[in-house]
Amino acid sequence: MGSLKAASAIAAVVSAKTSPACRNCHPAAEALKSNGASGFVLKRLCYESKRDFRTPGYGVAGDVRAQSGSVNLSSAVLAEPPKLSKIEKWNGSKKLQTQVAPVAPDITTIRSLDWDRDRFDIEFGLSDGTTYNSYIIQGEKLAVIDASHEKFRDLYLSSLKDQIDVSTIDYIIANHTEPDHSGLIPDLLELAPNAKVVGSRVCIQFLQNLVLRPFESISMKGGDTLDLGKGHVLEFVMAPNLHWPDTMFTYDRGTGLLFTCDAFGMHYCSETVYDEDLPSIEPHYRFYYDCLMRPNSKSVLQALKRVGPLDFGVIATGHGPILRYNVPELMSKYEGWSKQALEKQLASIAVLYVSDYGYSDRLSQALARGLTKTNCGVEMMDLNHSDTQELIECVGRNAAVVIMAPPSSGPANEAVTTLFAAVKAAKQPIVIAESYGGDDEPVDTLVQRFVSLGVNSPFPPLRVKEEPTEATYQYYEETGTDLGQYLTQKKAIADKKANLPADIAKAIGRISGGLYVVTAFKGASRGAMIASWVSQASFKPFGVTIAVAKDRAIESLMQVGDSFVLNCLEEGNFAPLMKHFLKRFLPGADRFEGVDWTPATNGSPILNDGIAYLECTVKSRLETPDHWITYAEVTNGNVLKPEKKTAAHHRKIGNYY
Ligand code: FEO
């Protein structure tokens, strides 16, 4: 068994009762005392505050135990400073590093810091990189929970060898098999051939395809346990679809740590191990939820229900900071957002994808994200792991079906045969999309087959000609939004009319604005929209707010940290530009074809027929029921036609723009 050097760094628990500090007073636990000799830093938590913030059903185990005098060091925010590795470069310039930090008695994290990753599947707008968090537990048995991306091979294995004798690993626990967490599991098995791989049934099946040698495994079901000794009894909680059907959570009864892999994570890379700086991480937490978890709102609520009875205080995530200071608050956000998504749902769409095949999973997530922007619910189902009855029921309860092309043979392809019968009976519209897996069943053949059965296919099949880029994900996301609008248009208009009494609607209509075009480039993605709900919002620095409807395609390009240009249209001469940008563009179409523009210093287009422009960077977003109020600082700007005025926009009724 290996010796866990960093674990020895855990210091004593802080007296809860003596600390008057409050998480309301400061976002992080405050440093009370620094032991210069050892480098240990003692920090305090406000237990009064923690009690106030407790959400029924979500335990803060460590804190409670500390108050009662039963020492559980997982509650003590005490550690030697995290250790950073040397920096390596990947693809010539991208910075990679690992960070090792003790998080609880016998438990250490190795965080792979992917500083410059700028795209992660559909969350293509990463502004702050990401991390892949792996954990070591040294009980009497030695376990590693999740590993890392294979690009971290040298750094991760070197950090791991610094901590333990890798050959003595007893268990490799895989909470989820996407390669960012499992990419180095084959390496671990080479180094520790006697280790048993622990995962859900589906996870073990995935890994058997990934690891090209026999290995011992244990398939876990919800409620199963594994005793590592020294009090570390691990309990497994099935959490399918967060983010693949294989996902499970691992709960350590001894320390109250809950290891959740993708769930409750965020793509945010920093040297700060924990969630101390809530304002900085919140936008990333939300964006990640919207992209990865919102399409699986039902599964999120199921998972929350399953972990409700567990007494945990720390969420050991697979991406971004480990959650320690804001656990009830951040968990309750998942609950609130998921409930809200289900309550507002105007229609539900089945998105059938093929896990671990080409880009099926990622592209289907982009499409699902587009659907959720129109208040549509999504039921994601993996064709590799769905039985016939499940599939028939899924088709039956959804308003439309999106089918990601399966490979030309195998279980996913066989499942399509069931689909032909199920969709024929239910007659839902279908959309077929390529998966870019190298062996896709041809999409035209699939469409023809459905059409011949009398099934409507309202959109042409989605095609991918080259390895997906930001533009491809944008194309899939916009198709999702178009499909959602196609399915819900009548209901949405009726809702809009019903929302406001007529006299108020007329009065609201008297609020006037200007006419503008917001333009944004982000990687290969391009967006534009006509805007009239625009206002100056600050003097120093100059700042503006712009209201962006949640189902606007450009919304994805206006996340915190993104930049754009606000173009002012000319009074009496705005019609050509307005007409152009009000057109209904096909998903992924270039909005700027035929438009005269010049790149701004931030890369987005300045419309040469506008009268002035402002280059802006998004600083924060305020959510309203149907819009995002985007506050942006102005970084540059100029007037193109000094003698002209900005066009005004007058309305008669407030139900519409
Ligand atoms: Fe972080 Fe779904 O992998």
TrEMBL record:
Keywords: Electron transport, Iron, Metal-binding, Transport. Pfam families: Flavin_Reduct, ODP. SMART domains: Flavin_Reduct (SM00903), Lactamase_B (SM00849). Residues 349-484 form the Flavodoxin-like domain. InterPro entries: Flavin_Rdtase-like_dom (IPR002563), Flavodoxin/NO_synth (IPR008254), Flavoprotein-like_sf (IPR029039), Metallo-B-lactamas (IPR001279), NADH_oxidoreductase_modular (IPR051285), ODP_dom (IPR045761), RibonucZ/Hydroxyglut_hydro (IPR036866), Split_barrel_FMN-bd (IPR012349). Its cofactor is Fe cation. GO terms for molecular function: metal ion binding. SUPFAM superfamilies: Flavoproteins (SSF52218), FMN-binding split barrel (SSF50475), Metallo-hydrolase/oxidoreductase (SSF56281). Mediates electron transfer from NADH to oxygen, reducing it to water. This modular protein has 3 redox cofactors, in other organisms the same activity requires 2 or 3 proteins. PANTHER family: DIFLAVIN FLAVOPROTEIN A 2-RELATED (PTHR32145). In the C-terminal section; belongs to the flavodoxin reductase family. This is Flavodoxin-like domain-containing protein. It comes from Riccia sorocarpa.
